[in-house]
Amino acid sequence: MPYRTCLTVCARLCLAFVLLSAPILSRSQCDSLDFSILCQEGDLVNDAVFSCGFDCIFAGDLQGCFANCIAAGIPTMSTGCVGCFAEQSVCAQNNCLLVCGFGSAADCEACVLSNCQAEFEACAGIVDLDGDGESVVCDCDDDNASVYPGAPANASGVDNNCDGVLSAEEIACLLDLTGDLLVSVSDVLIVLSDFGCLEGCDADVNGDGAVTVSDVLQILSGFGSEC
Fold this sequence. Notes:
Blueprint lengths: L5 H8 L18 H9 L1 H14 L6 H12 L5 H24 L2 H11 L1 H8 L43 H8 L9 H9 L19 H9 L6
Helix pairs in contact: 1-3, 1-5, 1-6, 2-3, 3-4, 4-5, 5-6, 5-7, 9-10
């Protein structure tokens, strides 16, 4: 579950009688580890915010309570990123208390998105630099518009879909040593003919500087692929 679902949960549950304004934190408070948590552990973040909504309902220092509670629930999240979530929680109360307490989930989410999302993303440093529709939270290369979760392979030797594995489709053209737009027997024979090369190897398809068993296995993994 992505981090964005936390907005509605937080807004609907963080209800208090004292509405406090909180200072805006300096920008880009979340780091790469925080983004990994938000991308991969959305349920964990949701559960922490859900629980803190009840724990802090009567707190005098509302933001401080949220910060301490969320930090305890997500101990691997940085202090700065926790502060952004705490700030967002206070914003949700200040602007969406009645809507989220008595309205529909859709109205609540719209209210939080309208009033609190921009400041939260600015605080956290959540951006989409390459304009591919996926923010830095889950985008493994936010400087490359062809790389994002679920992106199609483009045979450029890049992990297009951010799954941490180079598929045959993602590396196909790098394996096309003959330039005929197909990984075929001819390419395999080139690798085998260069097998054992240790320097300046033309058939070094995995880029480690030598032609070894790993190169043979890699070109076999893409055998039959078209560029």
